[in-house]
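Margin note: ligand = fe (iii) ion.
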Amino acid sequence: MTSTPTTSSSSSSSSTPNSSSTLVTGIAELVTNDELLEEADHSEHLGRLSNAAVVVQDGLIAWVGLAARAPETDDRRDLGGRAVIPGFVDSHSHLVFAGDRSAEFAARMNGVRYDGGGIANSVRATRAASDDELRALVAARVAEMRAQGTTTVEIKSGYGLSVEDEARSLRIAAEFTSETTFLGAHVVPPEFVNRRAEYIALVIGEMLSACVPYARWIDVFCEPRSAHAFTEDEARVVLSAGREAGLGLRVHGNQLGPGPGVGLAVEMGAASVDHCTFLREEDIEGLAAASDTTVATLLPGAEFSTRSRYPDARRMLDAGVSIALATDCNPGTCYSSSMPFVLALAVREMGLTPAEALRAATVGSAKSLQRNDIGVVRPGNRADLTVLDAPSYLYLSYRAGVPIASALDRGGRHGS
Ligand code: NIG
Ligand code: FE
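Resulting structure:
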């Protein structure tokens, strides 16, 4: 979906051979997230323009402003009065898996608690799948995301849990995104159940070396409440080795109950700590103090699909915590690839305004990936735009469940 982050000095619309500029116009409401944009409505930090246009050239944004002042371009695309927002940045997903765990979802809806044990079922099916089968599954999931407005996706490994299967999961993920995350420390696989220390040695040794060429990040499921996941000390060892190998740090923490994940992420300067469902006061204070470095990535689709309480996003934002929203798309706790669904949950169940939810799902999740070329519609950034079949961004949660969002292709052409 997103290729290697592009840096470009070209923020004008000057032409290079074979490059053509496209005016995307007919935008009833443009949300830019650009807090410096002249003539924009800056309420709720959305940098909103009415009757706007954007010039796209070479996959980048070349110009943003009122349609009435748009420059000459080679080509033109009229969206007919729709809203445009920055493409969703889904900064947490586990798309490389095979198999079916729908029965676990049904059992949870009848009261069975989630504890991570079902991950072993996905590991078995993923190991048994061929490269081509896995590649086709990932391609279909990425296409499904794009059709719902996601323009950048982070993809984790974590259903291989052997040297070979983790490396191939990341090799396949890297065909679709530059935001790849090594999650060998997802759970202790069945063959190592009574040999945890040996498994951790493998993760930080041979497995890490095999995965580093395909990974940008390392993640760990730090959850002492789950017999399958990792303790604080184990997680620290894994993250330290990843950092040593040059990877950025991410943590699954505080998903099943209060625990050490958030404190560890803050201590180690992780870019993101994800879930944050059960936080104590000191966790919130720590995250607020670390808000320049560590983003709390909230995954309400997982709470929905595990019948859990939701994280207190309102309290986090009010305390000064940097937050992001992502799907966590995975076969166990949330088999939804829909960012609009996540936004609707964040608004309805987590106390966010529609504007706060939209910012968390775009510029907030871009920050969790340490990216400033996405999430904000401004000249020089990637032309990652999402069109809403609606006049305003408010319709994202107002028309929950209706497929109004889709990604605009980078040449400025709308798919439908
Ligand atoms: O983010 N909690 C850890 N990992 C995933 C779920 C994995 C699974 O159950 O397959 C999550 O919720
Ligand atoms: Fe996850």
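The two ends are 18 Å apart (CA to CA).
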